[in-house]
Write a structure and sequence with these properties.
Elements (H helix, E strand, L loop, with lengths): L1 H31 L7 H16 L4 E6 L11 E4 L6 H5 L7 E5 L8 H8 L2 E3 L4 H16 L4 E3 L17 H9 L3 E7 L16 E7 L11 H18 L6
Parallel strand pairs: 1-7, 2-5, 2-6, 3-4, 3-5
Antiparallel strand pairs: 6-7
Helix pairs in contact: 1-2, 1-4, 5-6, 6-7
C-alpha cells in the first residue's frame, strides 16, 4: 500500500511540475532561437528537467560511468538497450547535445511531447516504412549539422529483460556518415516500472555504462557493425559488474 501511495504521489508531482518546466523550456527556446540553431541550450535544460524526476524519487539511484568516451566533439550515433520507460530519463544524464529517435506517440504527450517538438527530436511510427525513411533522412541532416543522434536499436522496450535483435537504421547512418558509434549499456532499469503499469518497483540501482566508441571503418558492413555493437552491450549486461560509487 505504501508503494502504491508513493507511486501516485510521484506521478502527481510530475503532472504538477511539467507545466512549469515546459514554460521554462518555451522561454529558453524563444531566447536562444536566433543563435542556437542546434538547440543545445534547450536540450541541456531538458536534461536537467529529466534528471530532476530521478533525483526526487527515493527509490531510484542511477550512476553513469564512461563519460570519458563522450569527450569528442561533433556528430555520432549513440545506441542503447531499452528495458524500461525510465531509460529515457536516465540517458538524459549524459548531458550531451544529442537528438532522440522516439516513437510518435511520445510527441503527443502534453508538455513533455511539446518539449520534444521544441528540441527537434525525431519522431518514428514503428512498422511504417515511409516513417522510417523520413526518420533516416532527418537523422542524416542532424549528423551533417554536427548533432549526435541517440537510438534504441531494439526498436521497443524488452518485455522480459532479454536483449532483442537490433535493427539496422542506427548502424546504416554511422557507416554512411563515417561517424563514431557509441554503445551504451543501461543496467538495472527493467524492474523500475512495469511496461504496462504505473506502480513503481522498490529500490532500483541503475547504471548507465558508456563504452568506447566504435569506428565504422573497422567493420566490413552495416551488419558487422550492428552485430559487434549488440555483442558489446550484451556482454556488458551479462557481466553485471557493479560500478564503484
Amino acid at each position: 500500500m505504501l508503494l502504491r501511495l508513493l507511486s501516485y504521489a510521484y506521478w502527481a508531482l510530475i503532472a504538477v511540475t511539467c507545466p512549469f518546466f515546459f514554460a521554462g523550456a518555451l522561454l529558453i527556446w524563444l531566447v536562444t532561437l536566433p543563435f542556437d540553431r542546434r538547440k543545445v541550450v534547450l536540450h541541456q535544460y531538458s536534461c536537467a528537467w529529466a534528471v530532476f524526476f530521478i533525483v526526487i524519487n527515493p527509490l531510484w539511484k542511477v550512476r553513469v560511468t564512461g563519460r570519458e568516451h563522450l569527450k569528442w566533439r561533433g556528430p555520432a550515433v549513440l545506441a542503447a538497450n531499452h528495458a524500461s520507460l525510465i531509460d529515457i530519463l536516465v540517458l538524459f544524464q549524459l548531458f550531451r547535445p544529442f537528438k532522440w529517435v522516439s516513437k510518435a506517440e511520445n510527441f503527443k504527450l502534453p508538455f513533455i511531447g511539446w518539449n520534444m517538438h521544441l528540441n527537434g527530436y525525431v519522431s518514428l511510427v514503428r512498422g511504417d516504412r515511409v516513417s522510417v525513411m523520413k526518420m533516416l533522412e532527418q537523422c542524416s541532416a542532424l549528423l551533417r549539422k554536427g548533432s549526435p543522434v541517440l537510438f534504441f536499436p531494439e526498436g521497443t522496450r524488452s518485455k522480459d529483460g532479454e536483449l532483442r535483435p537490433f535493427k539496422d537504421g542506427a548502424f546504416e547512418l554511422a557507416v554512411q556518415h563515417g561517424v563514431p558509434l557509441v554503445p551504451i549499456a543501461v543496467h538495472g532499469t527493467g524492474s523500475a516500472l512495469p511496461k504496462h503499469g504505473v506502480i513503481l518497483q522498490e529500490h532500483v540501482d541503475g547504471w548507465v555504462q558508456i563504452m568506447e566508441p566504435m569506428d565504422p571503418a573497422d567493420y566490413g558492413s552495416v551488419e558487422a557493425l550492428r552485430d559487434a555493437c549488440r555483442e558489446r552491450i550484451a556482454a556488458a549486461l551479462a557481466a553485471r559488474v557493479t560500478p564503484v560509487p
